[in-house]
Design brief:
Structural class: alpha/beta
Number of helices: 5
Helix content: 25-40%
Distance between the termini: 30 Å
Order of helices and strands: EHEEHHEHEH
Radius of gyration: 14 Å
Strand content: 5-15%
Length: about 140
């Protein structure tokens, strides 16, 4: 199945789209919400702390090798479609999506409405994070 043909032109995916594909082996759900008050997650989510892993202290995006390592460590490889999950304001998801696309990973999308919409729609919620094996992620330097 070609996931790209089912996605919104604005770079988002709907909760319906994601719910129908939770078990897809080509999908990686990446939750960018961090902190002590995060209680639930979309099933299959892994965690990415955007502020620590994708941004330098000055706010600039990390280098291609740093991005590649961050994504590989959470089990995101070149062949995976990435869906980023954020809270009400998708700032971290937007930053992550731009960084991933900048370094050539076009199969990157943001969950429309984030986790709050997912929860409001009474979709499945888990408390544990998924652990994926190390994957090979290639970050291509923009030309």
């Amino acid at each position: 199945m070609n996931a790209a043909t089912l996605l919104s032109p604005d770079g988002t995916v709907s909760t319906e789209w994601l719910a129908a594909r939770l078990e897809a082996p080509w999908l990686r759900i990446v939750d960018v919400r961090v902190g002590p008050f995060v209680r639930g997650r979309v099933p299959g989510s892994t965690l990415l702390d955007v502020g620590k892993r994708l941004l330098h202290r000055d706010g600039s995006v990390v280098s291609a090798p740093e991005l590649a390592m961050a994504m590989s460590e959470i089990g995101v490889g070149d062949a995976h479609t990435v869906v980023l999950v954020d809270g009400d304001a998708p700032l971290d998801a937007t930053i992550a999506a731009k960084a991933l696309r900048r370094y050539g990973h076009q199969g990157t999308h943001v969950l429309a409405g984030g986790f709050p919409r997912w929860a409001r729609e009474r979709r499945p919620v888990v408390t544990e994070l998924a652990r994926h094996p190390f994957a090979s992620f290639t970050a291509r330097t923009p030309s």
